[in-house]
From TrEMBL:
It comes from Peptostreptococcus anaerobius. It comes from the Bacteria. This is Uncharacterized protein.
C-alpha cells in the first residue's frame, strides 16, 4: 500500500467535506473515488489526518456534530454556560439557548455535567440571613456579591477580547492559535460575513463557511 502524502489539495478536500458534516467513512469513500494514485483511504486514515493537521479548527459546531463527533466543551463553551447560569437560567434553559445559538442538540443533563466539572454555581437568590453582632450577615449574600464582582470583571475583559473592526465582503487573512497549542494556523482570502457574541463567520474560496472563536488573543485578522 502506498503511503499517503497529504498535499494542501488533499487536505482542502478533507476540510471541505468535514465542513459539510460528512463523517470519516464518507470522506474516505470520496477520496478513494477522486484519488487516482492507487492509494486506499480508510476512516482511520482520515481521522488521523484531521487530528494531526487540526482540521476541525474553524469548522462550525453544527457540522462537527453532524459528522459524528461529540461536542468538545472547550473554555469558550464553558464560559457561555457560566454566563447563562449566573443570569439564573436553569440547565434546560441553558441547553435550549446554546442549542439555538450553535444549531446543535444539547441536553440539560450535559449542562449539569459541565457545571459540575467546572464548579459553576447558579445564582443564589435571597438566602436566609444569620444575625451576628447585631448585623444581618449572610455567607451566601457575600458569596453572591463576590460572584457579581467577578462576573463584572470577566465581562469587561470579555468585551475587550471580543472587539473587532471587520467589514462584510472584505477579504482577510485569519491567524488562529488554539488554546493550549503553540502552533498558529493561517487561513488566507477569507471573506467576512458576520459575527455573533461568540463567533466570527467567514467564507472561503470554495464558498464554505468557516467559524472562529471571537477572541482577539486567539484569533487575529489582517487585510
Amino acid at each position: 500500500m502506498k503511503r499517503i502524502k497529504w498535499t494542501s489539495e488533499k487536505l482542502d478536500l478533507v476540510s471541505k467535506y468535514l465542513n459539510k458534516g460528512f463523517n470519516n467513512e464518507e470522506i474516505a469513500e470520496i477520496m478513494n473515488d477522486i484519488d487516482k494514485e492507487g492509494i486506499i483511504y480508510k476512516a482511520s486514515t482520515i481521522e488521523a489526518a484531521i487530528k494531526f493537521y487540526d482540521l476541525t479548527l474553524g469548522v462550525p459546531l453544527k457540522a462537527l456534530v453532524k459528522s459524528g463527533r461529540k461536542i468538545i466543551w472547550n473554555e469558550f463553551l464553558v464560559e457561555e454556560v457560566q454566563e447563562l447560569a449566573h443570569k439564573g437560567m436553569t440547565d434546560n434553559q441553558i441547553a435550549k439557548e446554546l442549542s439555538e445559538r450553535h444549531e446543535v442538540k444539547i441536553k440539560g443533563s450535559q449542562i449539569l455535567n459541565v457545571r459540575t466539572r467546572n464548579n459553576i454555581q447558579k445564582r443564589i437568590i435571597k438566602p436566609i440571613k444569620i444575625e451576628k453582632e447585631n448585623k444581618a450577615i449572610s455567607y451566601h449574600e457575600k458569596r453572591e456579591t463576590n460572584d457579581i464582582k467577578i462576573i463584572k470583571k470577566n465581562r469587561e475583559k470579555s468585551q475587550k477580547l471580543k472587539k473587532y473592526n471587520l467589514k462584510k465582503g472584505l477579504k482577510y487573512t485569519v491567524k488562529v492559535k488554539e488554546n493550549g497549542i503553540k502552533a498558529i494556523r493561517t487561513f488566507r482570502d477569507l471573506e467576512f460575513e458576520y459575527m455573533t457574541d461568540y463567533l466570527l463567520f467567514f467564507r472561503d474560496k470554495n464558498g464554505l463557511m468557516k467559524t472562529f472563536i471571537r477572541n482577539n488573543s486567539l484569533t487575529k485578522t489582517f487585510i
